[in-house]
Write a structure and sequence with these properties.
Catalyzes an amino-pyrimidine hydrolysis reaction at the C5' of the pyrimidine moiety of thiamine compounds, a reaction that is part of a thiamine salvage pathway. By secondary structure, this protein is mainly alpha-helical. The protein has a single domain, classed as Heme Oxygenase, Chain A (Up-down Bundle). About 80% of the residues lie in helices and about 0% in strands. The protein has eleven helices and no strands. The chain has helices at about 5-15, 15-20, 25-30, 35-65, 70-95, 100-105, 110-125, 130-150, 160-165, 170-190, 200-220. It is globular, with a radius of gyration of 17 Å. The chain binds ligand VIB. The site of ligand VIB has 12 residues, from helix 4, helix 5, helix 8 and helix 11.
């Protein structure tokens, strides 16, 4: 499966890290239902905080955009994150007796700090493309994981999670973000972006963010 033309190149350049992320033991545990509930809730509480900072990162993308089209796409993502994406976390945690105030006050795990602040820094120290390369593994990785798990899931309590990311709405989001990235790359790097002196650094940013996703899953498992 692939979204757009830039993402497959970045994914290939990330090598084994991409496999480590999308086929992580945490993911396999959701697929076959063996993931302990405590690990999933630990992940979900941290992921709520993650989404707070990801909303900030997409907000930064609005200010780093160079076209109105880019601004609209990033602003729409901020809106979706704050108003739709986080609701899933709030409702699932509420059912487990965790309030939103408790979510907001939870202490960030070091793996969470490392990942979210890395992404923010990619945007602060770089331009729109640096930020997109750091954001891409998160958005498109979950799209890939959702699709794979929907086709291979066993009897699992995580069917809702899988259905969310395998569903048409989320897959449309993935295609839209891939299109945003392809357009942004063409706008800034021209018709042969892989020849740009900037290309290796963008690949490196993508790979680093991918490794930080691996560590984020690991945090859920290790507690
Ligand atoms: C650690 C971690 N990585 C990726 C996602 C997935 N995700 C993050 S933001 C977003 C909406 C589109 O930008 C989606 C689907 C997550 N929740 N947690």
């Amino acid at each position: 499966m692939s979204y757009g033309t830039t993402f497959p190149l970045w994914r290939a350049a990330a090598g084994g890290a991409w496999q480590d992320y999308t086929c992580h033991a945490f993911v396999e545990g959701m697929r076959d239902g063996t993931l302990p509930r405590a690990a999933f809730l630990r992940y979900l509480v941290q992921d709520y905080l993650f989404l707070v900072h990801f909303s900030r990162a997409w907000s930064l993308a609005v200010t780093k955009a160079e076209t109105l089209e880019e601004m609209r796409a990033c602003a729409a993502t901020v809106h979706a994150l704050l108003n739709d994406e986080m609701r899933l976390h709030i409702e699932t945690c509420a059912a487990a007796g965790i309030t939103e105030a408790e979510l907001y006050a939870a202490r960030e795990a070091p793996q969470n700090l490392a990942y979210t602040r890395y992404v923010m820094d990619a945007g602060h120290s770089g331009d729109f493309l640096d930020l997109m390369a750091a954001l891409a593994p998160c958005v498109l990785g979950y799209g890939e994981i959702g699709t794979r798990l929907a086709a291979a899931a066993g009897d699992t309590a995580y069917a809702d999670w899988i259905a969310t990311y395998a569903g048409d709405d989320y897959q449309d989001t993935c295609r839209a973000v891939a299109g945003l990235i392809d357009g942004a790359v063409a706008y800034r790097l021209g018709p042969s972006p892989t020849d740009s002196p900037r290309w290796p650094r963008l690949c490196a940013r993508f790979e680093t963010a991918t490794r930080l996703e691996v560590d984020f899953w690991g945090m859920g498992l290790s507690g």
